[in-house]
Predict the structure.
Amino acid sequence: MDRYVALLRGINLGSHARIAMADLRRLVTGLGHEDVRTYLQSGNVVFASAVRDAERLAAGIERAIADELGLTVPVLVRGAREMAAIAGANPYAGREDDPTKLLVAFLRAAPERSRADALTVPGGETAAFTVTGREVYLHHPDGYGRSKLSNAYLEKKLGVVSTTRNWKSVRALADLSA
């Protein structure tokens, strides 16, 4: 069995799309996956599966959430090797000691090259980014909370579903899936 990380977009933010982690573990286990664990309350699931198609895994989890909880929640899945590679490739890791100022936006698909090339940091911000395949590495020296270079901004500009995790979470998920 291979190990995977499922990243749910936009759950448990205020009163929006509330999912208890026990319910999420039950749903993913019910799909036949094993060693199902969640990390934090923000929709991170680590599991083992005999299925080797990440898109199929994501679609199955999305469908189970819709069928059993009545919620439409985008799910992105990365394999353990992918997570390790992502955690080892942050171009900003050597510049920043605060893991809350480093983030990774996970994209459902690689954006069109023209959209990635046209992406810019909103005016007046000190943030930096690097688009690499299906990930966008973000460095927010002034913090992510008030930045316009947000998940919603990336989705709009790149034209793909995205979900963002801070560096501490990315490293923890890579470790948990190893």
